[in-house]
Amino acid sequence: GGFLFQALSNSLVMFLCARFAAGIVGASVPIAMAFVCDVTTKEERPKFMAFLGSIIGAAFLLGPGIGSGLAEFSLTTPMFVGSCLAFTGFVVSYFKLQDPSEFMPQAPKAAPGADNTVTG
């Protein structure tokens, strides 16, 4: 939503407010890392975290070049394209990603009537 609001802003104040709002809700990298940690075993986690890191690095490397190329059409084109890509990522992840709790081992159940409180 932040890129779309940036593209539709018609003043510097609106643009800065849109950037601020996008920054507040744009923490997708830590969420992706947490998801990878939740759905992988200890043995395969380094491989998938490295893969995720390489994708993030490629995005930081290629993104500015692609954005500047899109800016040849208009200054708002990169923002519209970015919002379309973000929306596509949301839809794909909503329908394709499974609940990470399905991958987590279940904690052992306490015996009936056992007091599980910690006192000190």
Please describe the topology of this protein.
Elements: H1 2-8, H2 12-25, H3 28-39, H4 45-70, H5 77-96
Helix pairs in contact: 1-2, 1-5, 3-4, 4-5
Brief rundown of the structure:
This protein is mostly helical and 120 residues long. The protein is 66% helix and 0% strand.
- Overall SS class: mainly alpha
Q: Which bin fits the share of residues in helices?
A: 55-70%
Total number of helical segments? Answer: 5
Summarize the main sheet.
none
Write the H/E string, N to C: HHHHH
Our Rg estimate from Cα atoms comes to 21 Å
Low-pLDDT stretches are none
Strand content: under 5%
Integer average pLDDT: 83
Shape: elongated
First-to-last CA distance: 48 Å
What's the β-strand tally? 0
Structural overview:
There is one protein chain. This protein has 120 residues and is mainly α. It has five helices and no strands. It has helices at 2-8, 12-25, 28-39, 45-70, 77-96. Helix 1 (2-8) packs antiparallel against helix 5 (77-96).
Descriptors for this entry?
single chain; mainly alpha; 0% strand; 5 helices; 120 residues
